[in-house]
Design brief:
The complex is a heterodimer of chains A (319) and B (530).
Chain A: H1 2-14, E1 17-18, H2 22-29, H3 34-37, H4 69-96, E2 102-104, E3 107-114, E4 121-130, E5 133-142, E6 151-160, E7 167-174, H5 175-180, E8 191-199, E9 205-213, E10 221-228, E11 232-242, E12 251-259, E13 265-273, E14 280-285, E15 291-296, E16 304-306
Antiparallel strand pairs in A: 2-3, 3-4, 4-5, 5-6, 6-7, 7-8, 8-9, 9-10, 10-11, 11-12, 12-13, 13-14, 14-15, 15-16
Chain B: H1 3-15, E1 26-34, H2 48-62, E2 70-74, H3 78-97, E3 101-109, E4 111-113, E5 116-119, E6 122-125, H4 126-134, E7 140-146, H5 152-155, E8 176-182, E9 192-193, E10 198-199, H6 200-212, E11 220-222, H7 223-238, E12 249-255, E13 261-264, E14 271-274, E15 281-286, E16 292-298, E17 304-306, E18 311-318, E19 323-330, E20 335-337, E21 344-346, H8 355-359, E22 363-375, H9 378-383, E23 388-398, E24 405-422, E25 425-444, E26 450-467, E27 475-493, E28 496-509, E29 515-528
Parallel strand pairs in B: 1-2, 1-3, 3-7, 7-8, 14-20
Antiparallel strand pairs in B: 4-5, 5-6, 8-12, 9-10, 11-13, 14-17, 15-16, 15-18, 18-19, 19-21, 22-23, 22-29, 23-24, 24-25, 25-26, 26-27, 27-28, 28-29
The chains are: A alpha+beta (319), B alpha+beta (530).
Chain lengths: 319, 530
């Protein structure tokens, strides 16, 4: 009888507690998700042909009615952008699926755990809050090391503005530090660092991705994605050293593409350096990705082709 | 002494206790005490306090005792008893000094053992009480003791296992002295009855004082009418019990004669008149709680009165093959005539006397509950544990562990749709739900068909938050929660109970931090008594 009572007490004690926490929800809300940061590409882009972003060597000899090379570039870069975002955010997915290991009023810690994917390393995730600001770190150390040996592979922050993941945030992967610590970085070994900055509190939202190459031999490559009401999207990125027009020099161009949910779009290519520095090329395409309008600022005799009215209204993206 | 000689002696003694014609001139004081507890070596009684309440009410309403001169002690110890007695003695002494005739009546229902009254853990030796009463400054002192072996108090002098006795009326000289009535002999236990919801002796004494003992039909019940009635009915009712027949006793030490009127059936103006033409037989008067408050043994062509308090009563007369039952409403200050035509035939299964109580005490109910739960702390009820309505089932076991104790088990659930609104997170929709398992132990104080109660409850609460958006994890919290409960149970129909209640609970929240929270519940319960 005494053992039965003891067993009942133990059972009752074990049945108490839980994870019913407002603070947990606020901490989780500070972590970005893929749908917050990924580029919302037009549905029609799937299967549409186009050239690679960094290998494009065409000379803008496209004609009306042909498949738009710029549209293809947009899709390609959009997918690459999303792949990079996915890779970074996948590190945070495990955190979402488990309750914190320890809770303090303005601090949550998950772990430490043994990292199953990287044997020999312990991993933990630390979040801290100061009023509306949340800081978080994904930290590693070699198994057996002490508390002072944790180093951060992923570092982020979020300034909340109420709503569901509405606010301003930034996070980066410190690939260089990981390499120094002997931590396997997989396909990231060509980088020193991968940065994301974003704001989701007001339209148009903005996500900026920066790849810092290993050793700082070249300038970081930046992709900026913005999204406005109505599913309008914009991607802006720099393409160095392409042979855009006949001449002795290669061009550095900035490509800004905008698209509507139905697949129509517009690309604006500005030559920052090269044979026709300052020149501007504009191209619009329909839902099938075929060119409907072309404008070349440097072509004196035939500056435009097609109907400009065929271009969608993207004024919501004009700041 | 032969039985005949005893009778004669008793008759002479009774003749000395006379004050009938002067009843109104006597200033009456009453100390009424009831105690269910008798110390660790006794089993708690179930009805001693109720007996005391009934007797107190009866003496104030019909016995000529003004409310200010009556003291009711429930579960008090011997020190309180003696203090109350001293207070009444002081008042009686002052009244005597003013030239008033006085009477002091002491009634006790409770345990007695080893020569002492047992008032809880305290004791009051019989001899001390007897000496105290013998010297009390009142012209007439009457002690009525309803307790086991209380006959020991009368054994030393004048004790009799007395049957009914003759009364000499019309005496001229006022009585002075001490009368002691006890419910049982020195070697007998005093027995309680679940069916009567009281002790046999006190029930029949009270029933007699309400009119059943008025054998003379003059509308007044004297001490000896009441005693002889209680004696006869107690012996008859207990004769077949496993404990054996219980014999009340009396003791007298009186001078003077006359007849001391204990109750005047016309004093309150209200009551029930059973006309002489009504069929003879035993009538039972049952309150809405199913309890027999009075009985009346009516003979052919004799008009009888029962001084029932204002209220609604069911009347039962038992025939060999059926019951005759009906309902009477006694209004304040009005005399109601019982009309035979208003009674109807009914099978024995429709006996208005509460069956469960007659069968041995415990009874149970099953029913539905509805209510609302809300936390005291504003931010908590706005963003964490929301205010919700609850629906549930509840079963209750009455009078099992102890009379008027109710043990209940309940389950309830409730929930609502809500939208989260936190400082850095607003907008996620979710469903909040609560499930509650509880067990409650309450103590009731029945007052007719209404029974107020208080008690303690232990609940096991499970709260859930299920988000519509899978991005946010569903959350749960479970915890035991002690609390208090109070309310009122009302019995509008013989098998139906309606309960209104309030609960206050403590809840320890342990997730974000250790936080003490409290919540309240208001609810109603509709139960059926099978």
């Amino acid at each position: 009888m005494r053992y039965l009572a003891l067993a009942c007490l133990c059972l009752a004690a074990a049945a108490c507690g839980g994870d019913f926490s407002n603070d947990d929800l606020e901490f989780l809300n500070a972590l970005p998700r893929r749908e917050d940061l990924a580029a919302e590409l037009p549905a029609a882009s799937e299967g549409r042909s186009g050239g690679g972003l960094t290998t494009r060597k065409d000379k803008l000899l496209v004609n009306l009615g042909e498949l738009s090379q710029v549209a293809g570039d947009t899709d390609e870069s959009g997918h690459e952008f999303n792949t990079a975002v996915d890779g970074l955010l996948s590190l945070l997915e495990h955190i979402r699926n488990a309750p914190p290991t320890s809770r303090e009023p303005d601090r949550r810690v998950w772990g430490p755990f043994k990292d199953q994917e990287h044997p020999g390393f312990d991993v933990r995730f630390v979040m801290e809050r100061q009023e509306l600001r949340f800081d978080y770190r994904l930290e590693y150390r070699r198994t057996g090391e002490g508390d002072g040996d944790w180093w951060a592979f992923l570092v982020g922050s979020f300034e909340a503005d109420a709503g569901i993941r509405k606010g301003v945030g930034a996070l980066y992967l410190d690939v260089k530090r990981a390499e120094q610590e002997g931590f396997p970085t997989g396909g990231l070994f060509l980088l020193d660092r991968l940065d994301i900055e974003y704001q989701t509190k007001a339209l148009p939202t903005r996500v900026e991705l920066a790849f810092t190459p290993r050793g700082g031999l070249t300038a970081p490559t930046r992709y900026t994605y913005r999204e406005a009401a109505g599913g309008l999207g914009e991607m802006k990125f720099l393409i160095p050293d392409i042979d855009l027009v006949l001449g002795g020099r290669l061009e550095d161009v900035e490509l800004t593409t905008r698209w509507a949910p139905d697949g129509r779009g517009m690309g604006v290519l500005e030559v920052l350096d090269g044979d026709i520095t300052g020149a501007k090329y504009t191209e619009c395409w329909n839902a099938l990705g075929r060119v409907t309008f072309i404008a070349r600022s440097w072509d004196f005799f035939n500056p435009t082709e097609g109907d400009r009215k065929s271009c969608p209204d993207f004024s919501a993206l004009d700041e | 002494m032969s039985p005949l000689a005893s009778f004669r002696a008793l008759s002479v003694a009774l003749a000395l206790v006379a004050t009938a014609a002067h009843a109104d001139a006597v200033r009456r004081f009453a100390l009424v005490a009831g105690n269910d507890e008798g110390g660790s070596d006794t089993r708690p009684l179930r009805f001693a306090r109720d007996d005391a309440r009934k007797m107190h009410s009866l003496l104030v309403r019909l016995g000529g005792v003004s409310p200010g001169d009556a003291k009711l002690l429930l579960d008090e110890d011997s020190r309180d008893f003696l203090a109350a007695l001293a207070d009444l003695e002081a008042r009686a002494r002052a009244a005597q000094a003013r030239g008033e005739r006085t009477a002091l009546l002491v009634y006790y229902s409770g345990h007695a053992k080893d020569g002492s009254l047992r008032l809880g853990d305290s004791r009051l030796p019989f001899e001390d009480l007897k000496r105290r009463l013998a010297s009390a400054p009142a012209d007439i002192r009457i002690a009525i003791l309803d307790s086991c072996r209380s006959g020991a108090l009368t054994r030393t002098k004048g004790a009799r296992k007395a049957p009914a006795f003759e009364i000499e009326s019309g005496a001229a000289r006022d009585a002075r002295g001490l009368v002691i009535l006890t419910s049982s002999a020195a070697d007998e236990d005093s027995q309680e009855s679940d069916a009567l919801r009281g002790s046999y002796f006190s029930h029949h004494l009270a029933s007699g004082l309400l009119g059943d003992a008025d054998r003379s039909g003059d509308g007044r019940v004297t001490l000896f009418e009441a005693y002889s009635h209680a004696y006869a009915r107690t012996v008859a009712d207990t004769a077949a019990s496993t404990a054996g027949a219980q014999h009340p006793t009396f003791s007298y030490d009186l001078a003077g004669n006359g007849d001391l009127v204990l109750t005047d059936l016309r004093a309150s103006g209200e009551g029930l008149l059973v006309p002489g033409a009504a069929p003879p037989g035993t009538y039972y008067f049952v309150d809405p709680g199913g309890m027999v408050v009075a009985e009346l043994d009516k003979t052919e062509d004799v008009e009888r009165r029962v001084a029932l308090a204002p209220g609604t009563y069911r009347v039962k007369r038992r025939l060999p093959d059926r019951l005759r039952i009906g309902e009477v409403q006694v209004a304040r200050g009005r005399q109601v005539v019982l009309e035979e035509a208003r009674l109807r035939d009914a099978p024995f299964s429709d006996d208005p006397v509460k069956g469960a109580a007659r069968d041995g005490g415990a009874w149970w109910t099953l029913g539905f509950s509805g209510g609302v739960q809300s936390f005291f702390d504003g931010p908590t009820r706005d963003t964490l544990f929301l205010s919700v309505g609850l629906l549930g089932l509840e079963a209750q076991l009455h009078d099992y562990f102890r009379r008027d104790w109710v043990w209940g088990v309940d389950v309830a659930a409730g929930g609502k749709q809500a939208v989260l609104a936190l400082p850095t997170l607003a907008g996620p929709a979710y469903r909040y739900s609560v499930t509650s398992l509880g067990t409650t132990l309450t103590s009731e104080w029945p007052r007719g068909s209404v029974a107020p109660f208080v008690g303690a409850r232990m609940a096991y609460l499970v709260m859930r938050r299920d988000f519509d958006d899978e991005v946010f994890p569903d959350q749960k919290f479970a915890m035991f929660s002690p609390g208090l409960v109070a309310g009122v149970r009302w019995k509008p129909l013989p098998r139906l109970h309606v309960t209104g209640r309030a609960r206050a609970h403590y809840l320890q929240y342990t997730v974000d931090e250790q936080r003490s929270l409290g919540y309240w519940e208001l609810g109603a319960l509709l139960t059926y008594q099978p």
